[in-house]
Design a protein that fits this description.
By secondary structure, the chain is an all-alpha fold. The chain has helices spanning 12-27, 57-153.
Length: 155
Amino acid sequence: MKLGRRPCQPTVRNLDYAHERVESWSDRMYCWNCGTKLPDHANYCEHCGSSRHGPSVGRAASETSKVVKQAVDQGVAALDKAIKAAEPHLRTAAKAASDAADELAKAARPAAERAAKSTRKAADATARRVKPAVARGAEAVEKGARRVKERAKKP
C-alpha cells in the first residue's frame, strides 16, 4: 500500500488546472438556445443574441413564476367550472334530504306523542301506588318525632 496524498484531494495546483480546463471547455461551447458554435471569449451568441451562460437566474425564476401562476389559474378555473356544474345537483340533493327529514319528523311525531302519553300514565300510576306507602312512612316519622319530644320533656 502506497502512503501519501490521494489523487482526489484538492491542491492549489489541481484547482488551477481544473479552472483552466473549464475555461478551455467553455471556450468551445455551443449556444444553449440555437446550438451555434460560440467564438472564444464571446459573452453572447452572434446568431441569436443569447447569453453564453444561458438564461439568468432571475429570468428563470420569473419564467417559473409565470408557469406556476398559469397552472394555478387553470386549476382554479377548472374548480370553478366543476362547482358550477355540480351546484344544481347539490341543491337537488339538499332539497331531497330536507324533504326526507320533514317526512321523518311527521312520521315520528305520533310515536313520540304516544311515548309521552304512556310515560305520563306510568308516572301517574307509580305515584298512586307509592302514595299510601309514603303516607304511612310520614305518619311513622311523625309518631317517632312525638315520642322523642315527650321523652325530652321528662326530667
